[in-house]
């Protein structure tokens, strides 16, 4: 869970809508890219889902989902099959992959032990 936008300072009447889109993005990541991809949930991508929902002329279907992170409470979420949630999931995974690639090439953290050059990968495989 990373990103610049946070749902911390949102008024209470809009907080449930924010969490609905946030959880919808998480479930959409899981459905489209596998369960491990939930760690790539990006709060900036939630904004894309919210903007799509605001501009959409038809109502977006809501699901009810139980999440272990939310103490197994049953929560209404934005449908992970909606176009906005799918688009936000794609953007979230692209942001995460570019961040990982940047960390590898900069030599930051534990990722500095990964080879950054294809030649090094071929030498290690021999």
Describe, in plain words, how this protein is organized in 3D.
- With 126 residues, this protein is mainly alpha-helical.
- It has one domain (12-125).
- It is built from four helices and two strands, in the order H-H-E-E-H-H.
- The protein has helices at residues 12-33, 43-55, 83-106, 118-125, and strands spanning 62-66, 74-78.
- Strands 1-2 form a two-stranded antiparallel sheet.
- A hairpin with a 7-residue loop joins strand 1 and strand 2.
- The mean pLDDT is 79.
* Percent helix: 40-55%
Overall number of strands? 2
Q: Please state the CA-atom Rg, rounded to the nearest Å.
A: 17 Å
Write down the secondary-structure element order. HHEEHH
Query: What's the average pLDDT?
Result: 79
Regarding quaternary structure, what we see is: single chain
Distance between the termini: 38 Å
What does the overall shape look like? elongated
Going by helix content, strand content and strand pairing, the class is mainly alpha
| Spatial arrangement of strands, main beta sheet | 1-2
Low-confidence spans: none
Question: How would you summarize the topology of this molecule?
Answer:
Blueprint: H1 12-33, H2 43-55, E1 62-66, E2 74-78, H3 83-106, H4 118-125
Key words describing this protein structure:
2 strands; 126 residues; two-stranded antiparallel ribbon; mainly alpha; 53% helix
């Amino acid at each position: 869970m990373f990103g610049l936008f946070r749902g911390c300072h949102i008024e209470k009447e809009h907080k449930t809508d924010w969490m609905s889109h946030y959880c919808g993005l998480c479930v959409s990541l899981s459905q489209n890219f596998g369960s491990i991809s939930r760690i790539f949930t990006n709060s900036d991508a939630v904004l894309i889902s919210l903007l799509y929902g605001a501009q959409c002329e038809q109502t977006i279907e809501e699901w009810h989902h139980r999440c272990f992170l939310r103490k197994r409470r049953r929560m209404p979420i934005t449908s992970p099959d909606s176009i906005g949630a799918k688009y936000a999931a794609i953007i979230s995974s692209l942001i995460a992959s570019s961040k990982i690639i940047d960390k590898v090439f900069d030599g930051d953290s534990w990722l500095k032990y990964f080879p950054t050059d294809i030649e090094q990968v071929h030498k290690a495989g021999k």
